[in-house]
Here is the input.
Amino acid sequence: MTRFIQMNRRLLLGGLTAGIGLAFAGQAGAQTTGGRRKLVVIIARGAMDGLSVTVPYADPDYRALRGSLAIAGPGQPNGALPLSEVFGLHPALTTLHDMYRVGQMRFAPAVAIPVRVRSHFDAQDVLENGGEGLRSQSDGWLNRALLASGGAGALKGLSIGAQTPLILRGSAETSSWAPGGRVRGEDRIASLLQDLYVSDPMLGANLARGLETEALAMTMQDGTAPVRRNDVAGMGQAVARLMTGEAGADVVALSVDGWDTHARQLAQMQTRLEGLDALISGLRTGLGEEWTRTILIVATEFGRTARTNGTQGTDHGTASSLLLAGGAMKAGGSIGDWPTLAANRLFEDRDLAPTLDVRSVFKGVLLDHLGVDRAALDSTVFPGSADEAPTLTGLV
Here is the structure.
């Protein structure tokens, strides 16, 4: 019962704070009326090790630097899944590899935020505010993109989690969903709240929509059973159900935690990447036909050291990998240059050196996929970034 109260309090308060609350999410079962494009941004919080995600197995310095953390090349036991003559994908990412083989996945192996910091909180702030530096913006670039895409209400934004992340905070109205326990019709607290707010046009409507949204999102596609809390693919399908239909969300932000792998990294990365792959698989399945109009971004605040530390892990680094997937993708390989892992090319003699500003990739997606104007991208969405040209023109 405690979990139920907490979950519904988040839903109710989140709806009131957002202004439009969960109105669109409660109607997500409606039939799609057009070819609206979708964007999902997943933030891997904790500094995801890019050298384990897109594995540079053919780089001559890779195995010596990584030691016991090195992943074998394609065709070997537990080897990477082939992407190119240089790169492979971590063996846990089977869904993403299937997407790559049909031209629905690409990767940037050496991206970074525009400033060099190794604090999780500071780097996440820069990644999400979209500006030139720490706390340079009080709102998030994805929220500003909602406004730049056609004004208030042109696209519907949705955040997944107990709190709206900085990336989606700002003037554009957004909604939120905090996954919780399944709401039963006989729950006494729900009945009491419904009775209490029955005459209140705002509180009553928000509570009803929140309860409806929870029931919709947490029910399996066949309507027969609730999504289990440890069912990552099911959670992906739940998010997808809030994106489909005439009133479904167009732009979604969510976070996946647990990437700060200072020790015993091999097992941790296997678990985390299996979960990420299952989440993406669930999104693809749940979106159905909408997947053909969807782009998904996986980004992290910074990478990890090229060398293994003394506890079979890695420490805070600089460049990392960024993943792009979706049915709206055009086929292609890596994005940006590969700096190599040669000793004289490492950043500060310890990290993978960045060759691409992460904002360039974000710009490319927003420009080509959502139609955000280049001038707005340079001045409003990512202030002061005119020198960073959008990558990936011709995505769709």
